[in-house]
Write a structure and sequence with these properties.
The chain is of the alpha+beta class. It has one domain: 2-Layer Sandwich (Alpha-Beta Plaits). It is 44% helix and 21% strand. The chain has a 3-stranded antiparallel sheet. The protein is flat. The N and C termini lie far apart (44 Å).
């Protein structure tokens, strides 16, 4: 899947929980990805996990990420409505 010519681009910055779910969906879709968590000091001003994906599959990865984030947001709103 990942070759030496693979170019990755920034997909977005997500909570750990969302990033984990997105990673699973990217794996299912066979989209190469990697992540970077904030360092010890940068945690002060930076939240979450930055994710990067295969540049040639960026649009598909954006759709996957948007679906996960939307579903998680709806679940949070549903819990608030109780």
């Amino acid at each position: 899947m990942a070759g030496k010519d693979l170019m990755t681009v920034h997909l977005g910055q997500f909570t750990r929980e969302s990033a984990s779910e997105i990673a699973g969906k990217l794996e299912e879709a066979e989209i190469a990805w990697w992540y970077k968590e904030p360092g010890f000091f940068s945690r002060i001003w930076e939240y979450g996990v930055r994710m990067f994906v295969d540049e040639s599959r960026l649009e598909e990865a954006k759709g996957i990420a948007a679906e996960v984030v939307q579903r998680r947001a709806e679940a949070i709103e549903k819990r608030k409505g109780r």
